[in-house]
Fold this sequence. Notes:
Chain A is an all-alpha fold. Chain A is about 85% helix and about 0% strand. Chain A has one domain (about 5-210): MetI-like fold.
Amino acid sequence: MIEIRWDWILNHLDDVVDKTWQHLILLLIPMVVGFAIAFALAILAMRRPGTVGPVTAVTGLLYTIPSLAAFAVLIPITGLTLMTAIIPLTTYTLLILYVNTVAGLRSVPPEVNEAADAMGYTHTSRLLRVQLPLAVPLIMAGVRVAAVTTIGLVTVSAIIGGQLFGGLGQFITEGLQTDFDTKIYLGAMGSVVLAFLVDGALVTLQRWLTPWARARSEVP
Amino acid sequence: MDDARGASATSSGATIEFDHVSKHYDTATLKSGGPGAVDDLSLTVPAGRICVLVGPSGCGKTTTLKMVNRLIEPSSGRILIDGVDITDSDVTELRRGIGYVIQQVGLFPHQTIAQNVATVPRLLGWTSDQQRDRSDELLSIVGLEPGKYHDRYPSQLSGGERQRVGVARALAADPHVMLMDEPFGAVDPIVRERLQNQFLRLQEDLAKTILFVTHDIDEAIKMGDLVVVMQQGGKIAQAGAPAELLAEPASEYVARFVGADRGLKRLSLYRVGDVELQQAPLAHVGESTRDLRHRSRAADLDFVLLLDGSERPIGWVELADLPPGGRISEDHADPMSPLLDRRTTLKDATSRLLDEEVRNGVVVDRDGRVQGLLTLRAVMDWMRDDRSREVPADVAGAIAETATALPAAVARVEEASRVDA
């Protein structure tokens, strides 16, 4: 039977908060940077469809690199700094964010694009005012998958990161080293709860961004 | 020209001229079922009129339409709006000045109905108050209560409602020219009929210059002041007023396209009020039967139409059934033959006469007062004589100009009666 020492957890709440905060930082920075890169590439894809193939291939290749290997390979280059975690975490988000953003922008029905052209939208305003809002559901689907994946990868990065990065994952590595179950479960369950909360927040954000999608179910 | 909502509205539209316009596609594009080619098309659409391009799919009618707002660029030739080459102005400027309605509507799903309608005003930089006022006004015009529809999204509307919003959006910046590609094609026949009628009523006030594409010849005849029948390869087979196409198709192709029932279709172009009505023998409630009998014997009548005190018809009275003395009452009248409105089309009117197996229908005015009788014979006589009538001068001019480019020269023009009505 597993025995969780709640008293230990209560006595180390400061530590829990710190590591959760670090986990969030390591989620936020790669997501923001990754989204910015993927979005720029997706905009490029709308102008030059020929770029989709190569960009998908490269981001796909980056995605296949095992995460532990990536962290390890970077240590000689970046040293044991936050960048060692942030760079791979960012590249892992690219594929899903890029593919979903392109799919979202392309999901706009042809008659809607045609109407926008015929009304006198310029190319740029059509992209920003018509295609982008309509791409939100697919973009957000990508963001949710990327966010949950990143939370998991941050946990894994603790194996390399020691005290420096790894967020809640550090509890797991420490727990394993000291054979202390409470820490292992704290790290594991903490990561899961964090993933649920972040996903829930993103769903709320998506609903707020797409009021028209909600309207569909409300029959007037 | 700026006032688009004048009551008489002779011309708030602008003429559209196609000057030897061609659009060629390579064979790969054509095989992929893309837009049809257009071959050396010359056509003038008079200001304030509806010109319908009709033909089978692939005949280039949609290509022709889309060249006007430069969604498709012609391979050669020029298109002029009010004499100005459309390539002279900036393409987005041009498009903001042209209303555009398509079958799939293409409303922006993420915008409310009010935002959709105000699309072009917003692009033109109107203030949000102006945009709101304009979208409210237009929703009312197309028969959608602004307060109710304003904040809804397109997904919450029926197909017919969406089409109306599409029309409202196209009208938002008060364009002189409207392009409509099968605008009522995606709704069921009953809704389509209603939308067509509503649009024709609107057009009486708006008098936009409208280029209208359809594959449905009945819709073409109903909507068009000028109907252009196109055939494969993007050529004009015949251009003319609807009545003319029906009465004198220029070729076997046009005759087949117009259909074997074109005589019946012609009936739908005219209204009861166009035909000379016959005087009905009348009697009033309360009249003495003796007087009436004297009167009718002199005129050799068997039936008279009984009216109430306000000249509204009650029914037919057979003289043989009348009692020898006393006064006529409502009880003596047989049920009514069909009551016809002056605005009923001849097609609907004759159909009702045939349905009820009677020779004539009683025509009444708006207040229900009797105007006269419509007989089947009068309808036939009128159809026979109708070719001597004239089309409005601008439509005739456009047809004549267009006709110079046609194989079959159009010698005679007929009335597009709906324009007069």
